[in-house]
């Protein structure tokens, strides 16, 4: 039953059988079978096809509204208890964070707290937030302020300086819809910075700038990871916030609170 309801939710988000199947890592046939099984159980029509798109019926939305909060709470109880016993934290990072300072901070934390097992993952911020919502991740660390989501708690745990690197060429930065750009756009405008091109990920921008392809407005740690020295970075007095995202129940876990305090202290030093 849980799998069927989560499949229905995936269809609500992704609008097509193919995208829902990719998100769930199952086949399109499995998506169809799960929805059909749920329609039989509920005795209601739950989806209507409109060309390539799938549209949920009012009955489907009503079913999700009533059941998903209980499913998430159940998953939190089960995973939370098992993770606490095993001292295991599943944590999602924005790609630009895990590819730079995030790798160092979890290495240092793991060496200091050997009884805690860290399970790191990297994705784009919207995917990470979805996985915190679903209970797949205990907590997420993201660059920039993410969009609010009911049932989640967002906590700013530090900030990261943005710099321009590269000698010449078009100026690349994050997508307009990204949390990073949303959080620094006003600062960039005051500094009269004009972005020429956008990229889905920040780390490749740093590496492209290092190879001479372009210039990049990137976090300082990304610039360092790409091989730039301090002298090669143009400081701007622009900072993106770093947010921790977790469900409210995660406040009960002392190990997660300790990890976030460790990360926050680390950010104060970089």
Descriptive notes:
The protein is an alpha/beta fold and 270 residues long. The protein has 2 domains: 2-76, Arc Repressor Mutant, subunit A (Orthogonal Bundle), CATH 1.10.10; 88-270, 3-Layer(aba) Sandwich (D-Maltodextrin-Binding Protein, domain 2), CATH 3.40.190. It is 49% helix and 25% strand. It has helices spanning 2-14, 17-24, 28-42, 58-86, 95-98, 101-112, 125-134, 179-190, 203-210, 220-225, 254-269; strands spanning 47-50, 53-56, 88-94, 117-123, 139-143, 152-165, 171-174, 197-199, 215-219, 234-247. The strands form 2 sheets. It has an 8-stranded mixed sheet, sandwiched between helices. A two-stranded antiparallel sheet has the order 1-2. A hairpin with a 2-residue loop joins strand 1 and strand 2. Helix 2 crosses helix 3 (28-42). The protein is globular. The termini are far apart.
Output the structural class.
alpha/beta
Placed side by side, the strands forming the largest sheet appear as 4-3-5-10-6-9-7-8
Order of helix and strand elements from N to C terminus: HHHEEHEHHEHEEEHEHEHEH
- State the distance separating the first and last CA atoms: 47 Å
Q: Give the oligomer, counting copies of the same chain as homo and different chains as hetero.
A: single chain
Number of distinct beta strands: 10
Stated plainly, the CATH topology of the largest domain is called: D-Maltodextrin-Binding Protein, domain 2
Q: What fraction of residues sit in β-strands?
A: 15-25%
Radius of gyration: 21 Å
In CATH, what is the class of the largest domain? Alpha Beta
CATH architecture of the largest domain: 3-Layer(aba) Sandwich
Mean pLDDT: 88
Low-confidence stretches: 81-86
